[in-house]
Amino acid sequence: MCKTCGCHGGKNEQLKLTVEGMSCNHCKLAVEKAVRALPGVMAAEVDLAAKTLTADYDPAKSTLDDVKQAIADAGFKAV
After folding, report:
1. pLDDT at res. 4
2. Which of 4, 14, 68, 69 is most buried, judging by how many CB atoms fall within 10 Å of its CB?
3. Residue 2 neighbours by CB distance under 10 Å
4. Best CA proximity match to 53, nearest among 65, 39, 67
5. Is 26 helix (H, G, I), strand (E, B) or coil?
6. What confidence tens digit (pLDDT) does each residue in 28-65 have?
7. Closest to 40 (Cα-Cα) out of 61, 66, 13
8. Contacts of 1 (CB under 8 A, 6+ apart)
């Protein structure tokens, strides 16, 4: 299995979370950067207007709790 994206047999999932506290493009970029830094995260995109994060990830490498913690470490709250 490819360690970067899991493309050779990995079972990737997509999650969508509401993120509280974002108000500007800097907030958007901070959340995306924090989540993308996690192992197994292939994509992370914030919709600032909807206050949501959508991420594609390998749950064998990072968990939902890991994603929520990365968001918290960036100064925001995932609900």
Report:
1. 54
2. 68
3. 9
4. 67
5. helix
6. 999 999 999 999 999 999 999 999 999 999 999 999 99
7. 61
8. 7, 8, 9, 10
**56, amino acid identity:** D
Look up residue 62 and give its amino acid: S
> Taking the CA atoms of the chain, what radius of gyration do you get in angstroms?
12
Residues 6+ apart with CB under 8 A from 57: 12, 13, 14, 15, 38, 40, 41, 42, 67
The reported pLDDT for the residue numbered 18 is 98
Domains of the chain are 13-78 (3.30.70.100)
Query: Average model confidence (pLDDT) for the chain?
Result: 92
Closest CA to 44 of 69, 72, 14: 14
